[in-house]
Amino acid sequence: MLNMPRTVTAETLDGLAEGDPSAMRSRRDLQRIHWLMGTRGIMARALQRLLASRPPTAPLRLLELGAGDGSLMLGVARTLGAQWPAVEITLLDRQDLVTRSTLDSYASLGWTASSQVVDVFDWVSTPLPGMHGLNTRFDVIVANLFLHHFEEPELVTLLAAIESRTRHFLVCEPRRAGLALAGSHLVGAVGANAVTREDAVLSVHAGFRGKELSALWTGDPSFWTLSESSAGLFSHCFLAKHSGQGRAGSP
Ligand SMILES: C[S@@+](CC[C@H](N)C(=O)[O-])C[C@H]1O[C@@H](n2cnc3c(N)ncnc32)[C@H](O)[C@@H]1O
């Protein structure tokens, strides 16, 4: 098991239309799986750690890549609560999944949320037009259950774009390990449908461990502090923080 190589296989959910009933059901399953994985708490604690040195009242511009329906970060926003400053969050996904009601729920917490429907590699390949448009820089970029969709060459491209557009990056992915694989085979026990049952296993095989994401990060090591480790029972998280002067994040 320790030598389980990383294999990326197209997931069933990614091939289904937004309104397909089994896709809608699978996205609801994902919320239960987040509960089992403790994702909300893991992300909230990691964000607090990543941004601990920022002035507590400084407004925050946050981007989530592969945000899905936006419900995960809404849960994180609820966990972080009123102690957090005004947050402007952009929910980027290639599918149009964020509802008006979800945006309103963010607003009720004092967060300003908007969705951006674009393939992440179009976002990557659009040149930085100063501080405007798709590529406006962000104080922090987050992703959850997203990077495992991609092979290493795509990851290098994506991480390089992230590195040039923020000073703080946080990602949580499936941990490629025996316990996570066993858990992924059991998601049917919490009522997950066939799409979720299949994708859960595929996502663990495409997950990460060790310092695999750090090895793909091309940011100048004299400016970037990296941290990569397991989190909870099934997750693997990577944090990157820029310090000092340099080209990343703000000018
Ligand atoms: C497993 S879901 C995770 C959703 C959310 N982050 C969560 O944890 O609940 C992966 C999401 O990535 C999106 N996605 C996959 N490939 C993408 C791409 N190339 N560009 C943008 N979004 C993509 C899918 O549409 C899907 O919503």
What does this structure look like?
With 251 residues, the chain is α/β, with parallel strands linked by helices. It has a single domain (15-242), classed as Vaccinia Virus protein VP39 (Rossmann fold, 3-Layer(aba) Sandwich), CATH 3.40.50.150. It is built from nine helices and seven strands; from the N terminus they run ααβαβαβαβαβαααββ. The chain has helices at residues 21-37, 39-50, 71-80, 100-108, 120-125, 152-165, 178-184, 194-205, 212-216; strands spanning 60-65, 87-93, 111-117, 140-144, 168-174, 224-231, 235-242. It has a seven-stranded mixed beta sheet with strand order 3-2-1-4-5-7-6, with helices on both faces. Strand 4 (140-144), helix 6 and strand 5 (168-174) form a beta-alpha-beta unit. Helix 2 (39-50) crosses helix 3. The longest helix has 17 residues, at 21-37. The model is unreliable at 246-251 (pLDDT under 50). The structure holds S-adenosylmethionine.
